[in-house]
Amino acid sequence: MQRKLIAAAAVLSLVSAAAFATGTNSSSSSTSGGQSAAAVIGFGSFTATNAGIANGHASATAGQGFGTTGNTTNATTGHINTTSVSGKGFGGAAATGISGADAAANAWSKLGGGWR
């Protein structure tokens, strides 16, 4: 009788562990970009400069529910673009640029082994 009780308790423990050993996954992505331009017209020395800045940030959190372990992942990236055009005499100068940044984050979380 005692062996059957121990066996039943072991089976119940395995069943509860299997029932609660679930995993969660989360992912996030961000894209950022912009365009800038500068122009100048004059006589003599002239310069046109533009600068574009783009930042991307992504955050992913997995396992926020009851009884789960939580995990958060962050990813940040940035890009700076600078263009300059200059000249002498009579005329003009123009400068354009495009900046872009992408960020991606993935997080995973898994619940523990269940009741014992």
UniProtKB/TrEMBL annotation:
<feature type="region of interest" description="Disordered">
    <location>
        <begin position="62"/>
        <end position="82"/>
    </location>
</feature>
<feature type="compositionally biased region" description="Low complexity">
    <location>
        <begin position="69"/>
        <end position="82"/>
    </location>
</feature>
<feature type="signal peptide">
    <location>
        <begin position="1"/>
        <end position="21"/>
    </location>
</feature>
<protein>
    <submittedName>
        <fullName>Uncharacterized protein</fullName>
    </submittedName>
</protein>
<keyword id="KW-0732">Signal</keyword>
